[in-house]
Amino acid sequence: MYLFLSILMLSCAQFGSQIFLPALPQIAEQFSLSNTDTQQIIMLYAIGFGLSQLLYGPWSDIAGRRKIFLLGQLLFIGGSFCCAMASSPTMLAIGRILQGLGAGAPLIVSRTILGDKLIADKLKQAFASMAIAASVITVITPVLGGWLTTNSSWQYLFGLVGLYLTLCWVIGFKLLPAGSGSGNSVSVGEILKQYFALITDVRFLCPAAFKWLPNLLFMSSVTFFPFEFQQKFALSAEQYGFYISLTMGGLVLGTVLVKIAQKYWDYHSILALFWPLLLLSSLGFYLLPFTLFNALLSYSIFLICGGAFYTCCLQLIIEPFRQQAGTVNALSGAIDMFGCALLAMLINKYWLVDSQSLGLLFLLVTALLAVSWCLMYRQKKQSAEQQQTPVYSARQSV
Quick one: three-class SS letters along the chain? Predict the structure, then answer.
């Protein structure tokens, strides 16, 4: 039951962020907005999403997961219907911010409820299953969004999401266990101290980089591609949604491969095994002509890698900090969404002009992840040596 609830809540955040991407050109045309302005309105969701998690994470550790989900989901629902009735860019922007501020709650609960109820191999398998489900949802949403945009309107999309979120709220109200929070009050200063300790801890930073940086690439790409594909290749929103959904199959493949590989290798080794795929994808964008086939192929390879990294990071980030699950997921999610969304907005405005500039961004991220992996490996080796030292000393004393 807890895996089902986790997947259901995760789907709320994913629908809120991804189903509207094929509709970007339609929104820009209706409100006479530039591509950049439309991208920024859509990215407001990610900014609110990221910031809200800083509150929901520690709050859920104290007050319990159920209460936080129910309150945040109501805000999410209200923002969705506000967008559905938007008659101006300002109203749409307000609705997107409200959506983001609410969406942090179901995401935090989806990631922490498994850690609350499962341990060891059961937790590992549950995270792998959740990653597969997340990738399947990511495949479905562009197709659904493109089809609805072509056959109705973008407002209809927001209304549909609002109804889905309402259904999830009812299910959460019925099935989520009450309580489970510590009940202890924590001051803002203590929370900030916890966040600072995490952000300076290599055990948190290095694995989180494998989540943040691929997400930066994903956000930069998905706001760049709708205009690039629909204008250069004369695709409709429905056709764009279909083609992008094909590439999203890479996420499913990546998560499935990790679920198989984790039986034989640890997550650090799996990260190293998939890193060359990211390099291959980067070179594809940078060196190959920007045709529909080349772009889809390079992006598919990247998403295989992204699916694998996401699965590994779910476990690696939380493993050393199980008693702070909400806080850890909050900080990770806040940087993942707010930081990456802000950077993606700047990148789309000042950096991305063609496929070569996109390829250069991919190459930079590939290099940074190689550095992160080396730091993780060194830290892991040092931890292993420290665990062996007492045994060695004891033998010497005997």
Answer: CHHHHHHHHHHHHHHHHHCCHHHHHHHHHHHCCCHHHHHHHHHHHHHHHHHHHHHHHHHHHHHCHHHHHHHHHHHHHHHHHHHHCCCCHHHHHHHHHHHHHHHHHHHHHHHHHHHHHCCHHHHHHHHHHHHHHHHHHHHHHHHHHHHHHHHCCHHHHHHHHHHHHHHHHHHHHHHCCCCCCCCCCCCHHHHHHHHHHHHCCHHHHHHHHHHHHHHHHHHHHHHHHHHHHHHHCCCCHHHHHHHHHHHHHHHHHHHHHHHHHCCCCCHHHHHHHHHHHHHHHHHHHHHCCCCHHHHHHHHHHHHHHHHHHHHHHHHHHHHHHHHHHHHHHHHHHHHHHHHHHHHHHHHHHHCCCCHHHHHHHHHHHHHHHHHHHHHHHHHHHHHHHHHHHHHHHHHHHC
CA–CA dist 81, 129 (Å, integer): 31
Q: What gap in Å lies between CA 123 and CA 291, rounded to an integer?
A: 42
Q: What is the pTM of this model?
A: 0.70
pLDDT in tens, 53-106: 888 877 777 777 788 889 999 999 999 999 889 888 889 889 988 998 998 888
Q: Is the dihedral of CA 170, 172, 175, 179 positive or negative?
A: negative
Distance in angstroms (rounded) separating the CA atoms of residues 373 and 312:
12
- pLDDT (tens digit, 9 = 90+) per residue, 99-131? 989 988 888 888 777 766 666 667 767 777 777
Cβ-contact 130, 6 below 8 angstroms: yes
